[in-house]
């Protein structure tokens, strides 16, 4: 799809989006965020929360406001939550970062990562707490399974079809490696017990990044890193890791799969892509919005590049003004699907950027925007470039035996 304006660039400037239109967009982003967002007062009473938080807490969205967070956690967690809240308001601590368990009405347990900061007004007075909630139930279950039994670990790890090592978290010393790891690292792991794991990293910052992610989330997945074998042979590895208990203390269980051949192929392709990037700017997501009549009411700078026109030239236009009635009918039909479903509708299409000439496969997410009364007020469209993802998926499929 190529979008370009039909009218000359020197036409009269159109008004920018109104505050109400901007508010619709912010409200939508709040509602569709893939993390829980909660505002609370000093007593942990919820002032407002988004649908993600309501779903995680197993509370109807309309009943979320007014719920006291400290009353819905496990009884043994209540006092520590209230204590931390008091410390946060007293500025004795900069933030709260914790994991909590919640029990749904059906009896199932859910684990959430809870990060809370103090919100102040322009005069420095505390307004309340802003909390970001992430559902880490699955990660927590995986971690607890790994912690269940060291004997079971050894049986599972030793027979794993990929290299696994365990290093002590406090000092990074090697504590275990399975047979696959011995082959890949080119030494007997039993003889290497106590070696610093940093010897295996070409870049120390990669190790630091992994540890930071483990401390924050408890796990890290599919990190590509340049590493060394014991004989200093360099290779590329795909690293996934989680925090487990080993020998009675916290440790890092890491799967290290060699991907040197794949990475070299990707690096060759990347070198070609770098030549193009010297001519083109990095393309972020494309964002624009239309009202219920299909009239453009807002867009971001990348959409301007897509159309080859400034926002002031695009506001007030319709698809028909930009691409003609035939294509406009197709886009309008797609918009109507999202509006009728009243939820995000996803499709893929090729986009041609009028300003840069870039052509890519984009995942296009169309989501109804609601006004303050909950009525549909328009549609928000976000286009994300998935060309590289699809290419890698295809490469991986072709590499399978």
Structure explained in plain terms:
The protein has about 400 residues and is α+β, with helices and mostly antiparallel strands. The protein folds into 3 domains: about 1-30 and about 260-400, 2-Layer Sandwich (Beta-Lactamase), CATH 3.30.450; about 35-135, Beta-Lactamase (2-Layer Sandwich); about 140-260, PAS domain (Beta-Lactamase). About 35% of the residues lie in helices and about 30% in strands. The strands form 3 sheets. It has a 5-stranded antiparallel β-sheet with strand order 2-1-5-4-3, with helices on both faces. A 5-stranded antiparallel β-sheet has the order 7-6-10-9-8, with helices on both faces. It has a 5-stranded antiparallel β-sheet with strand order 12-11-15-14-13. β13 and β14 (about 360-370) form a beta hairpin. The longest helix has 18 residues, at about 260-275. It is globular, with a radius of gyration of 26 Å. The relative contact order is 0.11.
Give the SSE layout.
Blueprint: H1 19-32, E1 36-40, E2 46-49, H2 51-57, H3 61-64, H4 69-72, H5 75-89, E3 96-103, E4 109-120, E5 126-135, H6 137-147, H7 150-158, E6 164-168, E7 174-177, H8 179-185, H9 204-217, E8 219-228, E9 234-246, E10 249-258, H10 260-277, E11 286-291, E12 296-299, H11 301-307, H12 311-314, H13 319-323, H14 325-341, E13 345-352, E14 359-370, E15 376-385, H15 387-399
Antiparallel strand pairs: 1-2, 1-5, 3-4, 4-5, 6-7, 6-10, 8-9, 9-10, 11-12, 11-15, 13-14, 14-15
Task: Write a compact overview of the structure shown.
The protein has 401 residues and is α+β, with helices and mostly antiparallel strands. It has helices at residues 19-32, 51-57, 61-64, 69-72, 75-89, 137-147, 150-158, 179-185, 204-217, 260-277, 301-307, 311-314, 319-323, 325-341, 387-399; strands spanning 36-40, 46-49, 96-103, 109-120, 126-135, 164-168, 174-177, 219-228, 234-246, 249-258, 286-291, 296-299, 345-352, 359-370, 376-385.
């Amino acid at each position: 799809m190529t979008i370009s304006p039909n009218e000359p660039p020197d036409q009269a400037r159109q008004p920018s989006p109104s505050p109400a239109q901007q508010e619709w967009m912010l409200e939508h982003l709040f509602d569709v965020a893939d993390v829980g967002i909660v505002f609370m007062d000093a007593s942990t009473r919820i002032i407002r929360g988004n649908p993600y938080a309501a779903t995680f807490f197993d509370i109807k969205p309309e009943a979320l406001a007014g719920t006291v967070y400290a009353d819905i956690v496990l009884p043994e967690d209540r006092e520590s939550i209230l204590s931390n809240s008091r410390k946060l308001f007293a500025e004795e601590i900069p933030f709260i970062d914790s994991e909590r368990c919640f029990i749904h009405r059906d009896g199932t347990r859910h684990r959430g990562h809870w990060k809370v900061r103090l919100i102040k007004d322009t005069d420095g007075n505390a307004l309340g707490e802003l909390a970001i909630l992430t559902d880490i139930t699955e990660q927590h279950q995986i971690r607890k399974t790994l912690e269940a039994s060291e004997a079971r670990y050894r049986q599972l790890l030793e027979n794993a079809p990929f290299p696994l090592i365990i290093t002590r978290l406090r000092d990074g010393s090697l504590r275990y490696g399975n047979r696959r790891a011995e082959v890949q690292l080119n030494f007997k792991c039993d003889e290497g017990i106590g070696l610093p794991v940093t010897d295996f990293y070409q870049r120390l910052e990669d190790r630091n990044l992994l540890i930071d992610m483990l401390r924050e989330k408890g796990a890290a997945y599919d990190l590509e890193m340049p590493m060394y074998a014991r004989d200093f042979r360099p290779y590329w590895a795909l690293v996934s890791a989680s925090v487990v208990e080993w020998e009675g203390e916290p440790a890092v269980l890491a799967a290290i799969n060699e991907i040197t051949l794949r990475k070299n192929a990707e690096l060759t392709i990347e070198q070609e892509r770098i030549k193009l990037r010297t001519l083109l700017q990095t393309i972020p997501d494309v964002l624009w919005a239309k009202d219920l009549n299909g009239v453009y009411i807002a867009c971001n700078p990348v959409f301007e590049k897509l159309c080859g026109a400034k926002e002031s030239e695009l506001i007030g236009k319709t698809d028909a003004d930009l691409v003609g009635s035939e294509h406009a009918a197709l886009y309008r039909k797609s918009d109507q699907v999202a509006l009728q479903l009243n939820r995000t509708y996803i499709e893929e299409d090729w986009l041609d950027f009028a300003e840069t000439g870039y052509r890519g496969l984009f995942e296009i997410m169309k989501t109804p925007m609601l006004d303050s009364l909950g009525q549909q007020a328009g549609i928000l469209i976000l286009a994300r470039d998935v060309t590289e993802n699809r290419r890698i998926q295809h490469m991986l499929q072709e590499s399978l035996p």
